[in-house]
Automatic annotation (TrEMBL), chain A:
<feature type="domain" description="HTH LytTR-type">
    <location>
        <begin position="193"/>
        <end position="247"/>
    </location>
</feature>
<dbReference type="Pfam" id="PF00072">
    <property type="entry name" value="Response_reg"/>
</dbReference>
<protein>
    <submittedName>
        <fullName>Response regulator transcription factor</fullName>
    </submittedName>
</protein>
<dbReference type="InterPro" id="IPR007492">
    <property type="entry name" value="LytTR_DNA-bd_dom"/>
</dbReference>
<dbReference type="Pfam" id="PF04397">
    <property type="entry name" value="LytTR"/>
</dbReference>
<feature type="domain" description="Response regulatory">
    <location>
        <begin position="4"/>
        <end position="117"/>
    </location>
</feature>
<dbReference type="InterPro" id="IPR001789">
    <property type="entry name" value="Sig_transdc_resp-reg_receiver"/>
</dbReference>
<keyword id="KW-0597">Phosphoprotein</keyword>
<dbReference type="InterPro" id="IPR011006">
    <property type="entry name" value="CheY-like_superfamily"/>
</dbReference>
Automatic annotation (TrEMBL), chain B:
<feature type="transmembrane region" description="Helical">
    <location>
        <begin position="15"/>
        <end position="38"/>
    </location>
</feature>
<keyword id="KW-1133">Transmembrane helix</keyword>
<dbReference type="InterPro" id="IPR036890">
    <property type="entry name" value="HATPase_C_sf"/>
</dbReference>
<feature type="domain" description="Signal transduction histidine kinase internal region">
    <location>
        <begin position="63"/>
        <end position="142"/>
    </location>
</feature>
<dbReference type="Pfam" id="PF06580">
    <property type="entry name" value="His_kinase"/>
</dbReference>
<dbReference type="InterPro" id="IPR050640">
    <property type="entry name" value="Bact_2-comp_sensor_kinase"/>
</dbReference>
<dbReference type="GO" id="GO:0016301">
    <property type="term" value="F:kinase activity"/>
</dbReference>
<keyword id="KW-0812">Transmembrane</keyword>
<dbReference type="InterPro" id="IPR010559">
    <property type="entry name" value="Sig_transdc_His_kin_internal"/>
</dbReference>
Length: 248, 270
């Protein structure tokens, strides 16, 4: 499937690198525009309506997020391109949006482009981009929503509503407070990285729990959560886990 | 036994009791004093040990902080990105040139972060190396100049890891957001026999505007790095008697030029 794309980065070198790599590695990407100026980027997007935008985060005058906020209906898939931005990358990951880091690794680029190409047919970009903009305006981690791809499409869930995640054969079942569980094709390890470490603790290789929902701890090595699930705590994690809940 | 002898006997007995009583008292007092002394001494020793310990801990922490503030991940990845560009162009000379420059700078970062002071000459070399790499990224958007008065003794010592983070702020917060070409000027001058001064001046957007932008993006890297600098300067004063005066001003406030000017006055320890 041919995908039209626009490249936005304040450094001409970065644009050149990306364009060169796309030509060599991703023949389905047709670059219809490129610019070093975010202001012009908005104009290009409005005029050309690309399916995919490669967007740098740190730019003078306006960063990538600020630029995105100025577009009323961001209906395109985004792949963020960034040298380093821990805060930004976190937010991007939460919304299941693509990103690659500079210097660009060929395999990362190929993978990000292939995922974005698949997503274009699903037409979920608008929802994800809007969620990203919403999350960027929220300070408290717990109030932010994360985007979870599942069988029927995308689920938008508030982090504070997740009670625990249960890993099963590479899939993850997510249990909520007032909602029936959902299945995600992300592994439990992925959720462990995605959810804030301060609130979510991996008590067992297949159980990630929200510590705010702990009802009690049983000496034989189990925790009982508010939804009455009784889950085992791995032997090698017990001491650390107990120290952690005491300090909360 | 005569009467007198008897009296004498009673008398010497009394003296004996008195003396032994006094001796006992003195002995008890000595023992008590000894214990008090020992506990005091131990207390002082532990206090000292704790303070040495926390001092060492502080030093290690600051070394780490300084290294982090120098090895700014933005800078590292942007430099490598620029090198990737020359590799793609098949420009072997430029690729090698910048790769070796980068490697030299990283080596300097590691080496100098372990030292309290370095020679002024080494500091100038580090900063020019750093700016050359930034120029690779900013190209025509950045120019720089490092001036050193003839009166400055380049073999003299300067506290390490103080200047580079300030120069980096000038580039990343001042020049980065400026549309036109920006210039960073670093001037070393001798004020008196034991005092020298370093001025880092840029013609970027100025610290006021840069702080305003930082608030917008929810990050405050700048305040973090200036906090590290403050702590480091305080420690230098406490431990090595270096007296460093540090002022930062927005140039628009006292002239019709824009940008930020940072002045550091180093007074050598006596």
């Amino acid at each position: 499937m041919t995908v039209t794309a626009i490249l936005i980065d304040d450094e001409h070198k970065s644009l050149a690198i990306l364009k060169n790599k796309l030509e060599r590695l991703c023949p389905n990407i047709k670059v219809v525009g490129e610019t070093q100026d975010p202001e012009e980027g908005i104009k290009l997007i409005t005029d050309l309506e690309p399916q995919l935008v490669f967007l740098d985060i740190a730019m003078p005058s306006m960063n990538g997020f600020e630029m995105l906020q100025k577009i009323p209906q961001p209906q395109f898939e985004i792949i963020f391109v960034t040298a380093f931005d821990s805060y930004g990358i976190e937010a991007i990951k939460h919304c299941a949006i693509g990103y690659i880091v500079k210097p660009i690794d060929s395999q990362d680029l190929i993978q990000a482009v292939s995922i974005a190409t698949q997503n274009i047919t699903d037409k979920t970009a608008l929802q994800k981009n809007k969620q990203l903009i919403e999350n960027l305006g929220i300070q408290s981690f717990q109030k932010k929503k994360i985007v979870i791809p599942c069988q029927e499409g995308l689920e938008f869930v508030k982090m504070e509503n997740i009670i625990h995640c249960e890993g099963t054969d590479g899939y993850t079942k997510i249990h909520f407070q007032q909602q029936k569980p959902i299945m995600s094709s992300y592994s439990i390890g992925h959720f462990h990285k995605l959810l804030p470490q301060h609130d979510f603790y991996l008590i067992h290789k297949s159980h990630l729990i929200n510590v705010n929902y702990i009802e009690k701890y049983l000496n034989e090595g189990y925790v009982v959560l508010q939804d009455n699930h009784k889950l085992p705590v791995s032997r090698n994690k017990r001491t650390e886990f107990l120290n952690m809940i005491r300090s909360v | 036994m005569s009467k007198e002898e008897k009296v004498d006997n009673i008398f010497s007995e009394e003296i004996f009791f008195l003396l032994s009583g006094a001796a006992l008292l003195i002995a008890v007092a000595v023992v008590i004093l000894f214990f008090v002394f020992i506990t005091r001494k131990n207390k002082l020793l532990t206090e000292k040990a704790i303070s040495i310990n926390s001092y060492e801990k502080k030093m290690v922490e600051l070394e780490l902080h300084a290294l982090r503030s120098q090895m700014n991940p933005h800078f590292v990845h942007n430099s490598l990105n620029a090198i990737q560009y020359y590799i793609q162009l098949n420009d072997i000379d430029q690729s090698e040139n910048y790769l070796t420059r980068f490697s030299k700078l990283v080596r300097q970062f590691f080496e100098y972060s372990r030292k309290q002071t370095i020679r002024i000459e080494e500091e100038i070399d580090l900063i020019s190396n750093y700016l050359a790499l930034e120029k690779l990224r900013f190209e025509d958007k950045l120019t720089y100049e490092i001036l050193c008065d003839e009166t400055v003794d380049k073999e003299a010592a300067i506290p390490s890891m103080v200047l580079q983070p300030i120069v980096e702020n000038a580039v990343n917060h001042g020049i980065f957001h400026k549309k036109a070409t920006g210039k960073v000027t670093i001037t070393f001058s001798q004020l008196s026999e034991d005092t020298f001064c370093v001025v880092i001046k840029d013609d970027g957007i100025g610290i006021k505007e840069s702080q305003k932008r930082a608030q917008h993006t929810l990050k405050n890297h700048e305040s973090h790095s200036s906090q590290v600098l403050d702590e480091r300067l305080k420690l230098l004063e406490q431990i090595d008697n270096w007296n460093v005066e540090y002022t930062i001003k927005d140039r628009a406030e006292f002239s019709d030029e824009e940008g930020t000017i940072v002045t550091l006055i180093f007074k050598l320890p006596n």
